Amino acid sequence: MSVQISGVFKDGAGKPVQGCTIQLNAKKTSPTVVVEVISSTVTDANGHYSIEAEPGYYSVSLMREGFPPSVAGDIYVAPTDAPDTLNAFLDAPKDADLRPGVMKRFEEMVNRVVDLSGATEKDRERAEQAAQSAEQSKDSAALSATAAAESQKQAARSADAADVSARSADDNARQTAQDVLACAADADSAAKSAQTATEQAGQAKIAADTVQKAQEEAGVSAQSAAGSAGSAAAAAQTAGEHAGNAAASEISARESALTATQAAEQGDNSAAAAVLSEQHAREYSEKAAKSEAAASASAESASSSDASALQSAEKAEKQKNAAAESVTRAEQARDEALTSRNEAVEAAETAATDAAEKAAGKVSEQLKAAVADDTQRAEAAMAGAESAAVASQGYRDEARDIAESLKPGDASTTQKGLVQLSSDDDSDSEAYAATPKAVKKVKDLANQKAPLDSPDLTGTPTAPTPPLSVSNKQIANTEYVQAAVAALVGSSPEALDTLAELAQALGNDPNFATTMLNALAGKQPLNEILTSLSGLSTSGSKLPFFSSKNTLMLTDLTTTGRGLIAKNSINEIITYLGLVETINLAAGAVPSTRRVNEKALTDDIYITSQDIFNGQVLMIGADQNLDNFQTPGLYAQDMNVNTSTALNYPENNAGSLMVLRSAGVTQIYRVYNSSRSYTRSKHSTQAWTPWVPDDSFPVGAPIPWPSDTTPQGYALMQGQPFDKAAYPLLAIAYPSGVIPDMRGQTIKGKPNGRAALSYEQDGVISHTHGASASSTDLGTKTTSSFDYGTKTSNTTGDHNHNRGTMEITGTLGYFRSDNSSFYTASGTFTLGGSTAAKSFTGSNFTYGVPVNFNASRTWSGVTNTTGNHAHSVAIGAHAHSIAIGSHGHSVTVNATGNAENTVKNIAFNYIVRLA
């Protein structure tokens, strides 16, 4: 079952430390954890941490970014440990710690004190329970006394009831015999009527039904009526048989008419007798029930008297037994009478049934014989009942004598006997004692106590308080003693006692003076204490004491107080209080004056690790081989000169050595004035393992190492196989048995979906390159100036042009708007015109318009020729403008980079711890 280690990690200033990794490195193999297995947790923003740690030994390491790893110490987690903080587990003493003898003794003492405290608490509870039980016993005793007196009265009443019951049984027996005789007479009469009842069979049947109904109403108690009903049924059957012969004998029928009438009357009489018998039977049943109830009450009263007499006196025990035997004999007599009566009824019914099956002529004789037999049985039962009545009367007289001998009298301190009980709790009368309720309580408690004949008293025994008048072998408890003392002192005034003795002394005593002195010598002299006592009111369970004002007062005396007063020695008091075991245990307790590391035992002691280890370190000394230190404990080497690898030190520096022992031996060497520590172990007869420096790297973790020389206990990670049996912890990290080759490799955080230790080739993510040249306007450029000189064309190309005839014709005129006439002109004219204008000169209107001349001309003839000739062309020096314009260029990106993807780096060897 894991144990929760949780809390808030704080620095020296009390501030929470966040992002700190807490690692638990298993130092030993436990049932649930393998050695060197590491679990870790990281503190949150509030410095909170929580670890569900399996039981075992762990080395606690702390790692925080920006700080070197550190070892906080060792802890031991037990399956029974309660959840606590890491600080508490680190501060707790370890099982492997070398503790001083006084510390172990102190722990034993603390455990013993805890046990003693629990025992004392139980003793106190038992004492309180005993006090309550004693108080209840006192009340039960008062009730028991009252119940005893009541039981005696009840016994007397039971005896009287037994006498009445016996007489009633005698009377009932006689009545039963008379009923049986009456039934026999009825049966005889019915038989005679049946022989002559030929024509009146129906009336006889009705009479038989009436008798049968009366028999059913009589019930179980009307046994005599049952006989009558059976006889009537037989008569009815016989009448039915004779009814078949009625037709053959008319004369006999006439003679039978009168007889049938008489039979009907007799049937009515029989029914009346049956009803009367039923009433008698009911009365007898009620009397028998009352007798039985009285007998039961007598038995219960006798049983109650038995319980009271057993507590009162040995004589009462014998008388109780006699009364019980008397009741038993009375019950036996009653049972015999009932048995005889039942047998008589059964015999009568059997006889009636047999008679019905036979001929009618034999009915009367058999019924008479059966009735005679029943009569004899009834007489015998009556005689037995009379005998039982006589015996019951004798028993009654004997019980009455017993009751008379147990009749209570007034309570007295001078004579023996029973006292009358009273249920009053505020009476000052001295003639009564106790209450009946107390008797029942005492009896219930007595049933839980040891038997009187062989008492085996354990714990805190209690006993009921007997009345003061009892003088026998009952146990006298402290309450009885206190009551006896109080009764002796306050039962009668001292003056009256003195006067009575004085009167006796004056009766013709010649030595009056001597007698007087002798009488006074036996008196307690009066003093202040006795005077104070006489002024106190008497009350049960009280103890006198002097108050701070020197006044005598009364206080409650509990059952526990009475029990303590009754003890004769200190040992008895210790036993009574149940402190024997406590005192025996306290005898071996450490005295309170003792101290632990100068800390007194009178207050809570807080033990720190410094208290445990202070002064407990053993010095190693010179020339000591560490292979020989296999006893668990703390050792120290204070001289560097005493250390060497030849003596199996991990390095030539002083330090401390801790030796732990379990299945083997483990040594932890911590170098002086540094944080370096080394661990090695040895199991059975095997050799010591090499010293391995403690660090925060678990087995299997790749460790960057800045050298080609591998430290002891480590191996380069170059893909080589290793022995899984020799290095089981490394095999857990690398189940394949092969150490990964880390040369030229980097470690990548494992993404989801990828297996641990899976290999990935180098590469870059797929991407594209975009390339372009910037757009540039080169402007207008001019070519260089060049003079081509004068060039001459060739001399060819001589030709002529034909010229046609041109004839020009046209009309010139103008249009006058005033008279709508067009005027034309002829002759020579010149081409021209002006802007239209109009004006008035007096009554003359002048209007000028442009002249429109239309003409055409036809040309004819050939032009003149000049012959072949050449033309000189002067080109001259000049330049040409070239417009380049805005445009783009295609760019080709050349490949670049190293043979592999890499960043700036420093080469380290990866090593792994072998374990």
Structural features, described:
There is one protein chain. The protein is elongated. Helix content is 41%, strand content 15%. The longest helix has 96 residues, at 101-196. Among the domains are: 1-95, Sandwich (Immunoglobulin-like); 129-405, no CATH class; 616-698, no CATH class; 708-760 and 902-910, heat- and protease-stable fragment of the bacteriophage t4 short fibre, domain 3 (Alpha-Beta Complex); 811-853, no CATH class. The model is unreliable at 218-253, 305-310, 359-364 and 828-833 (pLDDT under 50). Strand 16 and strand 17 (677-682) form a beta hairpin. Helix 4 (223-243) packs parallel to helix 6 (314-357).
Search tags:
17 helices; alpha+beta; Stf-like_N; elongated; six-stranded mixed beta sheet; host-virus interaction; Immunoglobulin-like; Phage_tail_collar_dom_sf; four-stranded antiparallel beta sheet; 915 residues
